[in-house]
Amino acid sequence: MNWYLEEGKDSDVIISSRIRLARNIKEFPFKIKMTKEDKAKLLEKVKFILPSLGYGLKFFYLKEIDDITKMSLVEKHIISPEMALEKEQEGAIVINDEENICIMLNEEDHIRLQVFTSGLDLQNTLNLAVELDEKLDEALGYSCNKEYGYLTACPTNVGTGLRASIMVHLPALKLTGNLNKVLHIVNSFGMTIRGAYGEDSKVKSDIYQISNNQTLGMTEQEIVANLENITKKVVEQERLARKYLAKNSEDLEDKVYRSYGILTNAKKLTSEECDNLLSDIKLGTDLGIMQELKDSKVKELMLYTKPANLQKRVGKVLEANERDKTRAEVIKQIIKGGK
User: Fold this and answer.
1) CA distance 111 to 327
2) Could you name the CATH architecture of 3-240?
């Protein structure tokens, strides 16, 4: 099963954990100064050493991936929106069947190595990323400075080049009016909290991404430990807010079941409306208010109602109005357990 459909530790609040390492190969200039020939040569160099890495990794040129597949990977948070929308299409991705490892090539840096897992598991995710990173360094030779660490295209990544991030679902903090206070505290501890798709992205489904700001002057272990500690505090506050809401369970139950009623009976649903309904339903399921759905089923709904993954599921390109009707049909299929 793909990692994003699995249940993980603390998955009532924590959607996923990700480790991303930014790396550059010393024989090439930074991407901003690379020629078309440099970019092609870099891709071939990585493709050549791929069999020696293991992990079931496969190589795909970006220009050979159709637009819907690229956007489906964005919706799964596996590649960046910037990479999917790049006009030159001079990059590539290296990915395994489980999709818990994805290396973006010629994105902002030569290499953006990413490892994902469901729920809270930063330590094992980091271990796998470091293991693969060492193999890549041995085969390719990274650009590194004894004083500053790994050299990267963006100064904020210099040092460890590590960006650790955790995706969290915070509907109760929003409903109780405590969200801004918690977000302010997270920022004051040197962390960044954004929408689910990273920098400049809108918040959807009450899902936020918490990540480290600092990469220089700290070890990978320190970065991960700090992020985990801050996230645990956020989880604690979200659960307290949920307990408060559950005391007035009749109102909450009404909200959850109204959302479930619309979701299961509507003939048409926009992506944004569906996201909001599913946020309520996930909250109700995680609190045990709703017995009709399990968390694994909610994960399926959250993925396959997104525009690109909806079209991938039904195997055809759909106009916006068709998507809204198909989305309502697919919801019924998933809930009934069909394909």
Assistant:
1) 36
2) 2-Layer Sandwich (3.30)
